[in-house]
Design a protein that fits this description.
It is a single chain. 41% of the residues lie in helices and 11% in strands. By secondary structure, it is α+β, with helices and mostly antiparallel strands. It has a four-stranded mixed beta sheet with strand order 3-1-2-4.
């Protein structure tokens, strides 16, 4: 039985050696990567020769996005829980057009007995 095992190994000897070499190279590469990341003697990056900026905030363009003060809300006629959604909420796009009720603002929906859906935020 042992002789059959050695014959099998000899017939696949080149494939076995190739697999062992690939595994060893992988293990060595991984460990070298870990060792190089532990080395704390990295050279810091220095930027020289650029123009100085006295007030960097003045060069940045900022845009303030705000939500409408009284956005429209929608609800479904078939909703058992009487939930309303803002137009940007995922639930608003799932309501079929024939079942959609549109309120002019959130206060109108609340006055009609609807509450804000749980997956919708202001």
């Amino acid at each position: 039985m042992l002789s059959k095992f050695f014959q099998l190994i000899k017939s696949y000897q080149s494939d076995i050696v190739l697999c062992v070499v690939i595994i060893l190279i992988s293990v060595i590469s991984f460990n070298l990567g870990k060792i190089s990341s532990l080395n704390g003697t990295k050279t810091p990056v220095k930027i020289t020769g650029g123009e100085s900026v006295e007030n960097p905030k003045s060069q940045l363009q900022t845009t303030n996005y705000s939500l409408p003060t009284n956005p429209q809300v929608v609800a479904s006629k078939n909703s058992k829980g009487k939930l309303y959604h803002f137009l940007w909420c995922p639930g608003a796009s799932q309501i079929a057009e024939k079942n959609k009720i549109t309120f002019v603002n959130e206060a109108a929906a609340i006055a009609a007995g609807y509450t804000l859906a749980g997956n919708c935020q202001k």
